[in-house]
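During the second half of the funding period, the structural biology subgroup turned its attention to how the target accommodates small molecules. The most pressing case was zinc ion, which had performed well in the primary screen but for which no bound structure existed. We therefore specified the complex as follows and requested a full 3D prediction, including the ligand pose.
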Amino acid sequence: MTSETKICGARTKYGVCLEPPVEGKTRCRLHGGLSTGAKTAEGRKRISEANTALWAERNRLIELARSLEATAS
Ligand SMILES: [Zn+2]
């Protein structure tokens, strides 16, 4: 991510966030551009779901790598 980036770029389960960043920040208001953090239940739920999806994908890739290693040997 460069300073020229004009999108938030935060990872979501749908891809990267295409929202413009908050002025002076690198993230949009939904992804940490504001300093207040998630205060609503909806906001917390969104973060929780985003983290869950991220870890699910990471674990899937780890499992894939392990299966490939097993096949290679
Ligand atoms: Zn965003």
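Two results from this model are relevant to the next phase. Residues 8 and 68 are 34 Å apart (CA to CA). Residues 8, 10, 17, 19, 27-28, 30-31 surround zinc ion (CB under 6 Å).
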